[in-house]
Write a structure and sequence with these properties.
The protein is of the alpha/beta class. The longest helix has 18 residues. The radius of gyration is 19 Å and the shape is globular.
Amino acid sequence: MNASKIVTACRHCNAELSPETHRSDRKFCSDRCKQADYRRRRKVKDNPVEALVRGNNADLIREVARLYADTGVTIADVTYGKGAFWRKTPHLNVTGSDLLTVPERPYDFRNLPYHDSSFDIVVLDPPYLVWPGNHMSDDRYRNAETTKGIDYKGIRQLYHDGLKEAARVARRQIWVKCKDTVEGPRQRFLHVHLLQDAEALGLRGRDLFILDATSRMPNNHWSTQKHARKTMSYLWVFDVIS
């Protein structure tokens, strides 16, 4: 048998296959996963999921879920906010937590009370804006309550710590929303650094979605334009490697 063709992880849930099932014809850990993967592939066959999504965060999550989340999958959104991500996917089983907006689960996403491997998927959307002082984004993103005084190094550390905790809690995948930003004169490509940090933690980049947002911040605060305006944001899908 050609060892390079032996499958050691379930193609659907990424769970490690037991030694007796390490065969070239074995791709799933159970019939349930085999059937779920078949349903997923049938669902997107005639209407493929595209990496570029135009709309809002709910539109983005709907497309990601079409490819990676079935109805029975358990999801922890550990930066839940007001639940805007899930407005177009009410069929999904989502447990939300947030320091500011979910009083019954006011958890810091860097220190969650969940047991190891508690959820199939963990969704993470930390604050990404470098603190520029008073800013029009405060009302929308509550920067003054979350990232006041934080520079880009601090933002990247925030993501790193959240990823590390998410990797402990997730069985299958981590979905991470991010956006590139500017600090002073320098552009900070957070989506690139995020992949580097995730791989250093032992995660595997599976997919990258791009959201072209239809709702945008006004730009009349600029006196001169120094960089191309970036209206897009990103969502990484990382596999948790057992």
